[in-house]
Amino acid sequence: MKWFFLITGSYLWGSVPFGYLAGILIRGVDIRHQGSGNIGATNVFRTVGPAAGLSVLILDFLKGFLPIYFAQIMGADNIIGIMCGIAAIAGHNWTIFLKFKGGKGVATSWGVFLALLPVPTIIVSFVFLIIYLLFKYISLASIGAALVHPLITLLLGQPMELALFSFLAASFVFFRHRSNIKRLLLGKEHRLTG
């Protein structure tokens, strides 16, 4: 029963729309009608400000990290950790508080995987940084990091259930970035240069 409450709590915690709240509380605007319309940290950075964007990035990261951290403290195995991770990411992407419309799940996924697979995720974080520094596209860096993560996980001999979850989460990120991919191909994607 405790795992049921933990997984449900992971979804609800993941559902807290920090980007939306930042827009309302700081600028008095609905972030869903500003910039890209996304409630994630990148759009907050562009439309509300760098400090707000960084704060939302950290909070969205903690949506993923904290449920896994508490699950591990409570003695959960990898399967329970994966279920908490899926719930947290789903909460962010399809939040109950905004009619099941949310962000793209990159920061939340990062938190989940840093807790579940710290070494592969740290390596992939550098991949993200390199891609971003070369091209200045957060979306491209996110997609690239997501695609590399399952490969690094497998190469480092991590448990198969975690490798499969990494592949699933990468597919999730790719799916949520369909519009970004189209804009990248057309040369219309917005760079984030600070």
Describe the structure.
- This protein is an all-alpha fold and 194 residues long.
- It has one domain (2-186).
- It contains 10 helices and no strands.
- α1 runs antiparallel to α4 (50-73), α1 (2-15) packs parallel to α5 and α2 runs parallel beside α3 (41-47).
- The longest helix has 24 residues, at 50-73.
- The N and C termini lie far apart (46 Å).
Topology:
Blueprint: H1 2-15, H2 18-27, H3 41-47, H4 50-73, H5 78-93, H6 106-116, H7 118-135, H8 138-155, H9 160-176, H10 178-186
Helix pairs in contact: 1-4, 1-5, 2-3, 2-4, 3-4, 4-5, 4-6, 5-6, 5-9, 6-7, 6-9, 7-8, 8-9
- Radius of gyration, whole Å: 16 Å
| Low-confidence spans | none
Largest sheet entry:
none
Report mean pLDDT, rounded to a whole number. 94
- The geometry reads as globular
Number of domains: 1
Quick structural gist:
This protein is an all-alpha fold and 194 residues long. It is built from 10 helices and no strands.
Describe this protein with a few key phrases.
mainly alpha
